[in-house]
Every structure is written in C-alpha cells, then in structure tokens.
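testing teh design pipeline on a random one, pls ignore if ur not involved
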C-alpha cells in the first residue's frame, strides 16, 4: 500500500515537472537582448531596503514562461479596461513562493482561491505582488516554508509578472481581509510596496528567475557613489517607507510562526 502511494506521488511529481518544463523555456544565451532586459528589470526593481543592507542579489538563471491561454486572458482583461476607459498600463511586478507551488502557478496562474495562505490579507483578500523584487524574496529563499530573514548564501526563485493595476486605490493603513474598494481595480499598500489584485486575469507570469544572495563588495548596498544632500533627503523618505515595509514583514513572520505553532499544537492533541 505504501509502495503504491509512493509510485503515485512520483508520477504526480513527474507530471508536474513535465508541465513546468513545457511552460518555462530557459534563456540559454546570457548575452541576448532578452536576457539583458530581464536582468536589468530585476536589478532596477530593487528597493535597496535597509534590512538587506550589505547584500547583493544576482540572477543566476532566467526562464521564459509560455502559456498562451493565460496570455489571452490577460489581453482580454486589458481590452475590458480600455472599453471601460480605465488605465490599461502594463506594469512589472514580482511574486515569491515555495517552488512546490510553481507548477500550478505556471499552469493556472495565481488564483484568488489561494488568497490568505500566508496571512489574512492586510490590504485586502486578493493576490499580492510587489514592484520590488527584493521585497518578495523573504517569501521563499533557501528552503524556508514561511517568511524568513534573507542572508548571504541563500538561493531562491521568484516569478516576474505583467500586471494591470487599472485604477488603484491607495490604502492609508491595514484593512485586513477587505474586498476590493468600490470604483477601483486594485489596492496599493501605504508604502506602495505591495499591489493587490482581485482578478487573476489581470496578471500573467512572464519569467521565472533563479537568484543568489551574496555580500556586497563595497560599504553600500548598490556600490553607488556618494549622493548629494537632496538625494540623501529623498533617501530618508525611502528609509521611512522601508521601515514600515520591514515592520509589515516582521509582523508577517510572527503571524506565520504563530499559525504554525497553533497547527502543531492541534496535531499533537
């Protein structure tokens, strides 16, 4: 009986692997324009959060996602926005997840039915992404099953999406588990680090990116030159946003840890 279960599990894993390979095409030529563009988008999205000071994030492998039905649904959603005279600008956003979730996401996209799997949805019960790749890294790095600190030596994967925020509603604070604000198409967190979508057709996975975390060579996160006073003042405002964002991440880690502890307690009763 156990042997049969193991065979079924292996068969399921093989099907998932085949589905993933069929949907994700490796960009072999690291010197290609596409590879350079995706790498530049990844690096350009980094928010240089203070909690990641001294760390460097490097893409090690890039795979193009090919799923025509999801792309068709995305294009149809954009046409619907145009018909309603809504903003139809396409933006890039990132999502971090456990690799075991990737085959299902590559096949069927991120789904609303899976919302709330990490927390109750502080900015609405929708699908969460971020414009900043480093913001989502903690959701899966080097085998962690929950939100965890990122450190040098870690490796992981994240997905790069095209998204249609439409007309976004910027929240002023947490509104745990709320529905989409009437008259709007999406939510944006107070720090603008998180985008919340309520329709899976408004996003489509484009690339699967493997990355490695190392220590930065210089004293600054990005190795940039000394900044002017005006730029430093702007950085202070960004640091405030990073502090709030880091606070949210810390709360998420505590929330997930508490949920895991509660589940373990129930399992042992």
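output:
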């Amino acid at each position: 009986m156990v042997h049969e279960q193991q065979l079924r599990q292996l068969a399921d894993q093989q099907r998932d692997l085949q589905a993933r390979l069929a949907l994700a095409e490796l960009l072999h030529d690291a010197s290609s324009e596409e590879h350079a563009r995706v790498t530049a988008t990844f690096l350009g999205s980094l928010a240089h959060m203070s909690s990641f000071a001294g760390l460097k994030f490097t893409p090690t492998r890039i795979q193009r996602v090919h799923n025509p039905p999801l792309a068709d649904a995305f294009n149809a959603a954009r046409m619907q926005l145009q018909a309603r005279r809504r903003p139809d600008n396409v933006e890039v956003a990132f999502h971090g997840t456990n690799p075991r979730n990737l085959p299902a996401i590559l096949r069927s996209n991120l789904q609303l039915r899976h919302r709330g799997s990490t927390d109750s949805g502080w900015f609405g019960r929708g699908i969460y992404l971020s414009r900043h790749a480093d913001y989502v890294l903690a959701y899966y790095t080097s085998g962690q099953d929950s939100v965890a600190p990122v450190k040098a030596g870690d490796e992981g994967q994240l997905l790069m999406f095209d998204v249609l925020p439409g007309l976004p509603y910027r929240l002023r604070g947490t509104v745990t588990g709320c529905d989409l604000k009437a008259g709007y198409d999406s939510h944006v967190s107070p720090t603008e680090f998180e985008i919340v979508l309520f329709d899976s057709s408004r996003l489509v996975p484009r690339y699967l990116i493997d990355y490695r975390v190392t220590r930065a060579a210089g004293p600054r996160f990005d190795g940039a030159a000394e900044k002017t006073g005006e730029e430093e003042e702007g950085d202070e405002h960004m640091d405030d946003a990073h502090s709030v964002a880091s606070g949210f991440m810390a709360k998420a880690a505590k929330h997930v840890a508490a949920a895991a502890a509660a589940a373990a307690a129930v399992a042992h009763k």
